[in-house]
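Subject: Sanity check before I submit

Could someone independently write out the structure tokens for this chain? I want to compare against mine line by line before I put it in a report. The sequence has 136 residues.
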Amino acid sequence: MKINSNSIRNLIKAHIVLVLIFPFLWSVCGLPWDIVYVLDAMVCIEFAWAFRDIQTVMRRVKLWYVIPYLLLMLLYLLLTQLANFVSPVLSVMAYRRVFRFFLFYFACSVLLTVQNVEKIMGILINLQPVNLVLTL
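---
Independent answer below. Compare away.
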């Protein structure tokens, strides 16, 4: 199978769907929590594909706007870890969860077009009534 931009965009869409149904799969269907590592692998693939050509990325995405927030988040995590005497293993897992979002954000900002984002947002907005009914 040849990997192209459309394949990665479909992977991003599948990633979003999996994130949305993951709590259901875990709590109702009894699937193991280890599914979350599939999400990590998906993020790594998406991020690697997005940043395969760093020259194009730097022209398209203004990464320096986000980097201060990343550094603030890292500083906050380090300070709370030290203040609460948190285990280093738990801290690494927390870092993984926090920075996984930023990697996904970077990949989406590089790979998705405005039309892709509008389509995804339209679907998510239309799913809100279903979410409301299911959570009542």
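---
OP: Matches mine. For the report I'm noting this point. The CA atoms of residues 81 and 88 lie 8 Å apart.
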